[in-house]
Amino acid sequence: MNLLLEWECVMETPIEESLCTRIRRSEQALMAHHEAVLRGYGLTMTQYTVLLALSREGGMSGAQLARSCGVTQQSMGSVLTNMEGKGLIRRETSPVHAKVQIATLSDAGRALLDHAYQEVAVLEQALTEAFTPHEHATLCELLDRATTVLVAQTRQTRA
Questions:
Q1: In angstroms, rounded to a whole number, what is the distance separating the alpha carbons of residues 132 and 128?
Q2: So what's the pLDDT on residue 35?
Q3: Mean pLDDT in runs of 10 for the chain (159 residues)?
Q4: CB-count exposure of residue 5 (10 Å: 0-12, 13-18, 19+)
Q5: Residue of 63, 27, 24 lying closest to 45 (CA atoms)
Q6: Bridge partners (DSSP) listed for residue 91
Q7: How far apart are CA 110 and CA 26, in angstroms?
Q8: What is the three-state SS of the chain?
């Protein structure tokens, strides 16, 4: 099939059936669920992601957390100040760089994460059970491939 014919087929596909639209709808549904669950714990998605990253990686700088959460360092600074004020994290000066603050989970942050994670994990279990083991593995593989294409296209756009 030549490129012009392929483009015409893509353009004739109703927008609600396009792959990008389906991926976006799935992502929106996932985020809406997580945000609703986390709201009950007084957390935003970014705050939850910070708690999760700190629980897995230990102490991290604001810059590391910003990269991990996909936000700017400036935004992360506000998030961390808010979380420190709530007693969810502690920040101490890095032993390596005097200007760098290292964030770690407080006991209260770990307890809140444990409770929120249990509820978030319910969705993961429900999604896993919605597919056979083979379908689950195939879906994961296809999503990984789609992510690779999306990242590559973004890099090309930026270049």
A1: 8
A2: 93
A3: 56 70 93 94 95 95 93 94 97 86 96 95 94 96 94 82
A4: exposed
A5: 27
A6: 103
A7: 29
A8: CCHHHHHHHHHHCCHHHCHHHHHHHHHHHHHHHHHHHHHCCCCCHHHHHHHHHHHHHCCEEHHHHHHHHCCCHHHHHHHHHHHHHCCCEEEEECCCCCCCEEEEECHHHHHHHHHHHHHHHHHHHHHHHCCCHHHHHHHHHHHHHHHHHHHHHHHHHHC
Rounded distance, CA 105 to CA 37, Å? Answer: 20
Residue 134: HSE in the Cβ half-sphere, 13 Å Cα cutoff: 0
- The residue to which tokens 């964030």 are assigned: 103
Q: What tokens appear for 51 in the block? A: 């708690």
Structure tokens at 64: 């590391």
